[in-house]
Amino acid sequence: MQSAEVLQKELQCSKCGGQCTYQPAQQCLVCESCGTPVPLETDADEAASAEFPYDPNAVEADPKTVDASTVHHCETCGGDVVFVGRALSERCAYCDGPVVLREGDAAFQTMALIPFRVPQGDAQDYTEAWVKDRWAAPNDLSAIVAKGRVAGIYVPFWTFDSTEAIEYWASYRVRRGKRMVTRRTTGSMSTQFNDLLVPASPHVTPLIRDGILHDFDPRRLRPFRAGYIAGFAAEQHHQTVEDGLWSNKDDKDLLIRNRIKTQVGKSGVHNIFYDTKTTGIHYRRILLPVWIMHYEYQGKAKKVVVCGIDGRAYGERPFSTWKLGGLSALVSSVTIAIGVAWGAGGWF
Ligand SMILES: [Zn+2]
Ligand SMILES: [Zn+2]
Which ligand has the minimum distance to the alpha carbon of residue 205? Predict the structure, then answer.
């Protein structure tokens, strides 16, 4: 990030000297005093989706830089979140815990981000609509969620590309007359991964990842500029590329196994072993926008996440035991009715 002075100048309105913040509805900076819009487009926008090669055998010359922004450190979940300009919240966006202020956050350079497109008011509405639409939701849930407030945060992600030269061994089942028999097979294949989206922080939970996963389009990336996060929280990148690849290994393993199953093309493929030679690793360090709402229901902390790109809502919710009870009563009475009908059939 830029130095404090450069940043301050960039966020100051040229007409009245007021403070500018990023406005998702207009997708530009807007002066809070006089409303003057300041566009953030640059000639480099086209290049923002560029990917960077990574050679696992080369020493990573990738220094962290310390910036002058204010850091909110959460004592509950350990999250470090930076604010550009005025900090809007005294609570942690990830877990709603109290935060303490710290100086400077040593972090890796973020290459690009997808700016917020969904304004706060819409995110609030989507959250409430999501809760209202839940099946068997307790009656008082809507009122409780309506009192909560969404917090906007840019969360760190990786995208990874790679080419895999795979050798595999697997078993499958075939029918021989009346019984199924197991056969062994082996083969080789080449497969590619493109833009695997991987959380770059332990605070980016599966809930947050799933909320944003479907809306990722690299063409929406913009070069990192502090202006895009003015008025929002952001967690910076702290993982090395090696850390990122490591945290993706289980997901990648699952994807490779699925592709091997497809390649074998038989039923009941199991006992898969494989060896892969990975080349052509390319990565991006990016930030993606999410709105997070924390609420408490009967003493339990829950959250709803709204993707800041397209407004898709995902969340955690309580069930009404009363409504579930009603449902299981309904199910049993249907079962009884069917039982009686069968029984009735049997009498004739
Ligand atoms: Zn102004
Ligand atoms: Zn926290």
Answer: 2
Dig out the tokens for 343 from the structure: 């029984």
Amino acid at 330: L
CA dist., res. 137 & res. 145, Å (int): 12
Q: How far is the CA of 158 from the centre of ligand 2 (A)?
A: 21
User: What total of structural domains would you count in the chain?
Assistant: 1
Find the domain containing 143 and state its range. Answer: 4-158+193-241+283-317
Is position 311 within any domain? yes
How many Å lie between the centroid of ligand 1 and the Cα of residue 18? 5
Distance 86 CA to ligand 1 centre (A): 16
Q: Is residue 266 one of the residues assigned to a domain?
A: no
pTM: 0.85
- Determine the Cα–Cα distance for residues 292 and 74; give it in Å rounded to an integer: 16
Assess if residue 171 is contained within a domain: no
Write the pLDDT tens digit of every residue in 190-203.
999 999 999 999 98
What's the whole-number average pLDDT of the chain?
86
Among all bound ligands, the one having the nearest atom to the CA of 20 is: 1
Residue 270 within any structural domain of the chain: no
33 alpha carbon, closest ligand: 1
Map tokens 């877990």 to a residue.
95
Burial 241-265 (b: 16+ CB within 10 A, else e): beebbebbeeebeeebeebbbebbe
User: What is the Cα–Cα distance from 81 to 99, expressed in whole angstroms?
Assistant: 9
* Distance from residue 333's CA to the centre of ligand 1 (Å): 67
